[in-house]
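It would be a great kindness if you could assist me with a short task in structural biology. A protein sequence and the structure tokens that stand for its backbone fold form the material at issue. I should value your view on which stretches of the chain appear to form regular backbone elements. The record follows directly beneath this note.
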Amino acid sequence: MPEIVGIRFKSCGKIYDFDAGNLALRRGDKVVIESEFGLNIGSVVEPPHPVEDSRKELKKVLRIVTDDDLRQKTANEKFEQEARSFCYERIMARGLPMKLVRAEATLDKKRIVFYFTADGRIDFRELVKDLAARFKTRIEMRQIGVRDKAKLVGGFGLCGKELCCKVFLTTFEPISIKMAKQQDLTLNTGKLSGSCGRLMCCLGYEYHEGSSIQETREEKAKAASEEPEIPTELKEAESTTSEDTVRGDAADGSAAPDTKDEQQKQAHPQKRRRRRRHKKKPQKNE
């Protein structure tokens, strides 16, 4: 049964599964893995756990990071800055309508990935030739959105804190203007937009939290308004007990009257007697 470990390559990136093999890994360990793009350094975020059925073949973790790997990574940072500067020069020279964001190289320098943003599709074939001729390695160009750009670059929001996508967000959820309307906020895009130019992600937090509170209140109000239904068996039992009590009172001679006339007679006995006396008086005078 293989031991699966979850590894993350960036601070708030996705978690990928790898085969831990015979390595005793713990959360927070730095490891070296070999992916499709080459050697990379990642952090263990999910400790090894057994998996019964693994449908896809997972690549194994090569080793725990050594001092040589850390020195190589530091050297790659300078190499990435050089690659970014050269790519920026070639973009300006060729007049391409694109904005370069970052350049990342694998640990073994077998591949360099350039991240950029653009309004539409860009023909960067000549740019790739220039980069490949200079660095003698495989070049990959990736077009990303403005939200992904903010996640890579980082920054501070209107609240004065670091961007949520840079600190803890791993995915971007869709944010709509409807969320701002339900919170009775001023519909001003300048105040509701983040550094990326899109609606702030915190609108989604407050919207979901407020909707959950509202649903809880509605459920409580509905539960309070609804009276518990009495089963038919209990209703029949109550009706039979009431009849038995009436019959028992009748046996004692104090049964409750069945008709309205008898009820009125018992409720007003003095009035009945006065009416009878008033009728008999004129007969004596005759």
About this structure: The beta strands are 3-8, 15-19, 30-35, 38-50, 61-64, 99-105, 111-117, 138-143. The chain has three domains: 3-65, 72-144, 156-221. The chain is about 45% helix and 20% strand.
